[in-house]
Write the structure tokens for this entry.
Amino acid sequence: MSDALVQIRDLHKSFGDNHVLRGIDFEVAQGEVVCVIGPSGSGKSTLLRCVNLLETPSSGTVLVAGEDLTDPDCDIDAARRHIGMVFQSFNLFPHHTALTNCMVAQQMVLKRGKKEAREVASKNLDRVGLTDKHDAYPAKLSGGQQQRVAIARALSMAPNLMLFDEPTSALDPELVGEVLTVMRKLAEEGMTMLVVTHEMAFAREVADRVVFMDGGVIVEQGTPHDVIGSPKEPRTKEFLRRVL
Ligand code: ADP
Ligand code: MG
């Protein structure tokens, strides 16, 4: 058996008669950074959401850290605790400060005491470069800063896997860089990351592997050098011609 952190086997997902994922097989090794690229509607978000069971697969298996999340006996809440997810929209609590936004789930889900939760939150806000914003409310923060709070909040749960779904797509162009910088740092620190992104420069530089999806299947995958630099499949070539 492979010791990959994420192992996905023959994953299918349909919404009614819309067959969105059509047999996905892939793995993410411990410490690996995998970027998923592909046209809108190709199933990227659905794939990511199946990894932490925000969507229930129609068939196939999803193993995370050796645990089969599709097994009816699996404790999904327990498994999900170790998977951080960052979305396009930041979804911060507006009536909580940056610091308390990073404390709530620690206290509610991990049952950490207030003092420990505060220390962990504080450390992670510093880690994403928000040392001077601990007490700021989301409305007073830029989109880039809010997204960094969302990353710090996910990190505060001590995840062993981070999922990112187009984390910079909702940001003004000048704010994209600060979020990518934080993600690059996490990658360098050895975090296992699965990232859906349209940022080809980021994928090229940071990804260990790039997966190109179209029509609910993986069309091509490999190093960024191969997939972005010299794609083999016509569909990959066409997609890259449009986005590069
Ligand atoms: P991508 O992230 O690559 O743009 P998605 O995974 O969001 O693609 O969507 C793939 C397809 O699945 C689309 O046709 C979309 O309409 C459909 N879909 C996604 N989520 C749902 C849902 N919760 N209910 C019904 N259809 C959905
Ligand atoms: Mg999507």
Remarks:
- The chain has a mean pLDDT of 96.
